[in-house]
Amino acid sequence: MTAPAQTAEKGAARVAWRPAFLRSWPLRIAVIAICALWTIPTLGLLVTSVRNPLDITTTGWWTALLNPLKEGQWTLSNYATVLGSEGMINAFLNSLIVTIPATFIPITIAAFAAYAFAWIRFPFRGLLFAIVVGLLVVPLQMSLIPVLQLYGEQALGLYGTFLGIWLAHTAFGLPLAIFLLYNYISQLPRDLFESAAIDGATHFQTFMRIVLPLSIPALGAFAIFQFLWVWNDLLVALVFLGVDAGSRVMPTALYNLVGSRGAQWHILTAGAFVTMVVPLVVFLLLQRAFVRGILAGSVKS
User: Fold this and answer.
1) DSSP letters for 27-49
2) Sign of the alpha-carbon torsion through 157, 163, 167, 168
């Protein structure tokens, strides 16, 4: 064996015996740095939420970390103010009432529609799907006034009702839901559908027994997107539910608590972490389906 070959073999042996962490240390350092930079704003939000309101307006949040033992700078009164404010518990329940149906209704409709676009032949299928995709670029704000006129007392009378906001979130979320689920369902093996057709299965049976179980990753991924969007939504809630205390949701309650000028930062930061609890739990419960849904179709066997 020549000297260059022996040198290369020894180098490969040293790399093989090197720990996996050291072999990929540049990538790991880059990932850690990105995660740290991404977490800094959240850390600042957390520190601000437990600081004295006077300190918040006079010094930056990082000064609390530089001098953590300073007397009187840490307090939980911000959270007590948020949780003890009038109507906050009712707003939390209203958020759940709005968010859960507004997540499941568009997913259910979009799953059936995506299966139809992918595997059922019917007239103008391509045109209808192009219209659905085109709706993705239409700004949500353009439809607020027409929908409000439709919801008026002289028309449907849905203004200020939960049914009205469910239908609004369903309409606004359906184009993206149909597009995402179509991309997943259309990539399922054709042999499955041909076998089901040979066995005499109807489209509904094929959807319920084949498509639905195989589409759980994509459904879970979109469920997280839709849940987070509806839970954190302020504009649609203000427009279709109004500011009435009985139908107020968490973002609206926090907006009214902080005030129109937004000067009470200590309440805003504490309220932000209060509203983060439920979305965080939902993400942790569905994170496996979320990752599988994001990666679905990225690698073909």
Assistant:
1) HHHHHHHHHHHHHHHHHHHHHHH
2) positive
